Amino acid sequence: MGNRVYIFDTTLRDGEQSPGVSLNVTEKVQIARQLAKMGIDVMEAGFPVTSPGDFAAVQAVAREVKGASVAALARANFNDIDRAWEAVKEAEQPRIHTFIATSDIHLKYKLRKTREQVLEAAVAAVKHACKYTSDVEFSAEDASRSDLEYLCKVFTAVIEAGAKVINVPDTVGYATPEEFKNFIANIVKGVPNIDKAIISVHCHDDLGMAVANSLAAVSAGARQVEGTINGIGERAGNAALEEVIMSLHTRKDYYNVSTNIVTEEIYRTSRLVSSLTGMLVQSNKAIVGKNAFAHESGIHQDGMLKERTTYEIMNPAMVGIAKSNLVLGKHSGRHAFKERLSELGYGLSEDELEKAFARFKRLADKKKEITDHDLEAIVEEEIRELPNTYELSYLHISSGTTVVPTATIGLKVGGETKEEASCGDGPVDAIYKAIDKIIGLHLVLEEYLINAVTGGKDALGDVTVKLRKADNGKTYIGRGVSTDILEASAKAYVNAANKVVFEKNKA
Ligand code: KIV
Ligand code: ZN
Q: 411 forms bridges with which residues in the sheet?
């Protein structure tokens, strides 16, 4: 067994199964590109048989991504596998990932199959997938609650049938680290042909132990870890890959393994995933939270000033959090702006740079000091890849404790500006009703979140909205940033509406 651990990202598949998260093809491709830049070994782009949208996204990611394997998920039946292959076949390194549950509880209630029938289906599926590609992964769903002897029998048979990776999911997040480590060690012992395959683990976080379980499995011989960026996913989510990666990296003395990850890309990947999924990262989240490298107590600050390693086990720069004392302001020129962005890792085209610089100048008129967080927020807003059918031209609000909130909105649409006005329960409601009148879509506001990008009275307000389309129930995330929170609210709504229009036009 070598000491390289392969990192398998399933943000685009299991991560997208987070309640309320729905990414369109363009957003998936954007994330996939960033995952490749970060050095992810395998990315699972979706589950093609589930919908034409998922199929299209897997196909687009497969066509786009270079330097990483692209996996498509399929249940253990020929139809799923054929669709998965159809979607993923143009990838530089395509992988078919097929699965079937092996625990008695799933066999009895969900599959209504005997152990023998499941074994047969697993072997047949792997053989069928191997007709398309030699890179086949087999997952035994709910493995951690399966009978060990039976599980080993299934793994032995699928390796014999051609599987190169056998995945051990803790599907319901039930395992504990010590137990899971023993479980993996027993699989190593109980599967005679294990030297022909890589053991992978896929842990869910229902008891908050997904990362600990994944690491324990590595100690026992697992050499592929599956998870998602920011730990998003079904229910409580999956193992947070940034935590797994940085644990292996920081405690190399203990785990004695390595990955191919460009750790400096972690923070940017986390930001991108958060921004496009609308799943905010909690401030105290390990590695990528706002406070992960903040030192508040006097004793800690004193220690840090004397020697950073007294209170910091990782250098923030290692995960791509650039700490700089350089604060831009009104008098900063294009050159300083460009330099700072490239230090932050943004390589913008000339056009994007122009737009971002104009935005920066407008912001500098309102805000004295522009920090890295401000820059990230405005640049991320400017470089979104979807065409903007609607653009906020102006807004006028009348609100107070004794007046009915009223909004007048101007939206630019194809060269002309359309204006509408509306009253509402509050100023935001009035704005959204006025926008609805212009765009004529039936959208329901499901979630509204507001965050201050930095501290201070002149901080940028960062608004995230989740809109549901009334006719098909699909949700769309929108984000808007401005020093004026009502403007940020309007921009977020328009951003989500543009995604609806984009999808409608494509269809
Ligand atoms: O959690 C799980 O068991 C899965 C499998 C499909 C790998 O996501
Ligand atoms: Zn899962």
A: 392, 418
The residues pairing with 451 across neighbouring beta strands, listed in sequence order, are 462
Across the range 325-349, mean pLDDT stands at 80
Ligand 1 atom nearest to 226, measured from its CA: 7
pLDDT digit string, tens, across residues 103-146 = 999 999 999 999 999 999 999 999 999 999 999 999 999 999 99
Residues 262, 35, 136, 231: is their CA dihedral positive or negative?
positive
Please tell me the distance from the alpha carbon of residue 44 to that of residue 95, in angstroms, as a whole number: 9
Bridge partners of 445, per DSSP, are 467
Under the banding of pLDDT at 50, 70 and 90, the label for residue 452 is confident
Phi-psi category of 55—alpha, beta or left, where left has phi over 0 and alpha has psi -120 to 50?
A: alpha
Atom number in ligand 1 closest to CA 204: 1
Q: What is the residue with the minimal CA distance to atom 1 of ligand 1? A: 171
From ligand 1's centre to the CA of 206, what distance in Å?
A: 14
Instruction: Give bridge partners of residue 96 from the DSSP assignment.
Output: 72, 136
- State mean pLDDT over 292-321: 85
Q: Are strands 136-141 and 93-101 parallel, antiparallel or unpaired?
A: parallel
Phi-psi region at 235: left, alpha or beta (left = phi > 0; alpha = psi -120 to 50):
left
Going by DSSP bridges, is the β-strand pair 461-469/443-452 parallel, antiparallel, or unpaired? antiparallel
Q: What is the DSSP letter of 309?
A: G
The C-alpha angle with vertex 419 and arms to 414 and 423, in degrees rounded to 5, equals: 140
Give exposure, 5-17, as e/b (b: 16+ Cβ within 10 Å).
Answer: bbbbbbbbbbbbb
Q: What is the DSSP string of 216-256?
A: HHHHTT--EEEEBGGG--STT-B-BHHHHHHHHHHTHHHH-
Distance (Å) from CA 228 to ligand 2 centroid: 10
Token pair listed for 21? 């998260």
Atom 5 (ligand 1) nearest CA: 141
- Banded pLDDT at 162 (limits 50, 70, 90): very high
Mean pLDDT of all residues in the chain?
93
Pairwise CA distance, residues 247 & 228, whole Å: 15
Residues with CB under 6 A from ligand 1: 14, 99, 139, 141, 167, 169, 171, 202, 204
* Residue 204 in this model has a pLDDT that exceeds 90: yes
Rounded to whole angstroms, the Cα distance separating 442 from 240 reads: 36
Calculate how far, in angstroms, residue 265's C-alpha sits from the geometric centre of ligand 2. 24
End-to-end Cα separation, the chain, in angstroms: 48
